[in-house]
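Q: Given only this backbone (382 positions), what sequence would you predict?
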């Protein structure tokens, strides 16, 4: 058969400043691009394996997992294929079909799918709604108290540490304590935080913690981190009956090549960048304040923001779209002329973006570019 030419490239994304929050934390440092090449063959980490991926000595996956465990202060760590697979594994090992899991109203769709695929019943803790969409510990307390009054057992409490809609940072430590006081284990989803900001799993009262390599840990992925408190290790890492060394929830082996090689190569870089989180946050705060000077542009979610993912409501840019010959596409196209991408094509009412990892000069250039577009088209605004 004949097929298309699949020699792929993504010049546009690589040669422009990409504001897509989904992609800012997954950019590889040079040493990891090298590892990607070295380990590009299938099963490339398996040369020295004696049956357990997590115990491979060369490349030193064994000591990498120990370093990772110290980095996030958790007892046991495994790699999985993503944050979602980590959540699924925890629910699968811990819950029975029909059990109830409580999670925040800002939870990622993958938290819902992980629960659905396990036939679990989801009870949501609502956010405060417009404009902050804050998840309050007291709301968790109320939901758990209500379920308790109804005689409903809860098998797991899940919280999104930083959500992907508003970039709100939640009080995980307080919510973890509420879960523990009710005798329920606590799973923290750190897809948007682990690898960007300091994470201390014990201090945050977690029993289980998941992270995303391709989202926030400078790995090509797909790869995730699953951290487990010692008292749950036997349950989550239960072995196969037929294949004594293999861990059931891990399906024996998880990441078997380039994804884990790039994550390993990135660990020193991640440790370093996490220590500079306050500098990143300052850049974001500067960016938000510059954007809001445009007028008709407002950051929503908790203010001042505590994360680089920011959501703007942009009625000003939207009002231009009505009169502009390119309609809603003008913003994307004008940004592209300035070598800025990552805002969805056609979207002007609101957008999410992130300047994570850009230099101060680049952040200044990006903010200035938005301001310039605003002033060029101001006459078209209402
Ligand atoms: C991106 C994201 C995920 C999914 O992460 P994967 O590693 O791709 O499974 C889960 N939760 C949140 C909050 C996210 O933003």
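A: Predicted residues:
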């Amino acid at each position: 058969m004949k097929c298309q030419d699949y020699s792929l490239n993504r010049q546009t994304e690589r040669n422009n400043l990409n504001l897509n929050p989904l992609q800012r934390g997954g950019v590889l440092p040079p040493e990891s691009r090298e590892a990607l090449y070295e380990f590009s063959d299938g099963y490339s980490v398996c040369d020295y394996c004696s049956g357990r991926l997590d115990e491979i000595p060369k490349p030193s996956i064994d000591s990498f997992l120990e370093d990772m465990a110290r980095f996030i202060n958790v007892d046991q760590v495994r790699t999985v294929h993503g944050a979602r697979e980590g959540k699924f594994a925890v629910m699968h090992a811990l819950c029975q079909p029909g059990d109830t899991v409580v999670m925040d109203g800002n939870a990622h769709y993958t938290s819902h799918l992980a629960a659905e695929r396990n036939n679990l019943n989801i009870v949501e803790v609502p956010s405060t709604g417009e404009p902050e969409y804050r998840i309050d510990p007291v709301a968790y307390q109320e939901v758990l108290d209500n379920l308790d009054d109804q005689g409903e057992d809860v098998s797991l409490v899940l919280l999104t540490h930083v959500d992907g809609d508003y970039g709100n940072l939640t009080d995980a430590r307080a919510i973890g304590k509420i879960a523990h006081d009710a005798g329920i284990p606590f799973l923290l989803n750190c897809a948007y935080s682990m690898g960007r900001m300091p994470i201390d799993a014990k201090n945050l009262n977690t029993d289980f913690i998941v992270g995303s390599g391709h989202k926030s840990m400078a790995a090509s992925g797909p790869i995730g981190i699953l951290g487990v408190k010692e008292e749950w290790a036997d349950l989550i890492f239960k072995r196969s009956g037929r294949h004594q060394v293999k861990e059931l929830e891990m399906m024996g082996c998880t990441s078997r090549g380039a994804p884990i090689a790039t994550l390993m190569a990135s660990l020193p870089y991640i440790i370093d960048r996490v220590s500079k989180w306050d500098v990143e946050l300052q850049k974001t705060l500067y960016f938000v304040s510059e954007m809001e000077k445009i007028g008709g542009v407002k950051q929503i979610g908790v203010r001042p923001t505590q994360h680089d993912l920011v959501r703007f409501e942009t009625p000003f840019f939207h009002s231009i779209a009505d009169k502009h010959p390119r309609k809603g596409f003008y913003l994307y196209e004008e940004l592209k002329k300035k070598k800025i991408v990552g805002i969805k094509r056609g979207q002007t009412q609101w957008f999410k973006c992130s300047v994570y990892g850009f230099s101060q000069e680049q952040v200044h250039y990006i903010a200035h570019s938005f301001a310039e577009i605003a002033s060029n088209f101001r006459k078209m605004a209402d």
